């Protein structure tokens, strides 16, 4: 199946997709800051440059897009009808990198929390964010 957009239009659309400072990421950061957590962003010294790093709690938080990270069973993850094989490989590689980075971070003693964008939709946002705080604090009391 041919792409419905011209090459220039498709290129423009793809150039507008952000990797950092996305709306879900900003939502989590704003919530954490309002609740007294201080963090670093996209620490290049850590595997995968996690979105949010809480050094005090030895915790990193990845805020993943459902499409880009192949969130299984999610209504927001649907493979495109054009170039399906290419997209399947791309998303598979993203998932492999996620797994590798998770493994490296846990080996270095970091707790890794992953939040998918669908968990930050209005119906589930409050529960997700409250669970996030509980998860961070729970880990800290265990040390």
UniProtKB/TrEMBL annotation:
> Might you name a Gene Ontology BP term for this protein?
mismatch repair
Signal peptide (from-to): none
> What Enzyme Commission number(s) appear in the record?
3.1.-.-
Listed A to Z, the keywords are: DNA damage, DNA repair, Endonuclease, Hydrolase, Nuclease
Give the molecular function GO annotations. endonuclease activity; hydrolase activity
- One Pfam family named in its UniProt record: Vsr
Function field: May nick specific sequences that contain T:G mispairs resulting from m5C-deamination.
Name this polypeptide is given: Very short patch repair endonuclease
What is the native source organism of this protein?
Pontibacter mucosus
């Amino acid at each position: 199946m041919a792409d419905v957009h011209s090459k220039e239009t498709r290129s423009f659309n793809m150039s507008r997709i952000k990797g950092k400072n996305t709306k879900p990421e900003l939502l989590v950061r704003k919530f954490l800051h309002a609740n007294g957590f201080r963090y670093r962003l996209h620490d290049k010294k850590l595997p995968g440059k996690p979105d949010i790093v809480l050094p005090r709690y030895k915790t990193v938080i990845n805020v993943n897009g459902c499409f880009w990270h192949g969130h299984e069973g999610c209504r927001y993850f649907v493979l495109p009808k054009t170039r399906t094989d290419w997209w399947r490989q791309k998303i598979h590689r993203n998932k492999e990198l996620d797994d590798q980075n998770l493994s490296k971070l846990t080996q270095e003693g970091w707790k890794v929390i992953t939040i998918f964008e669908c968990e930050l939709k209005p119906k589930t946002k409050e529960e997700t964010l409250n669970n996030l705080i509980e998860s961070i604090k729970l880990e800290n009391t265990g040390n």
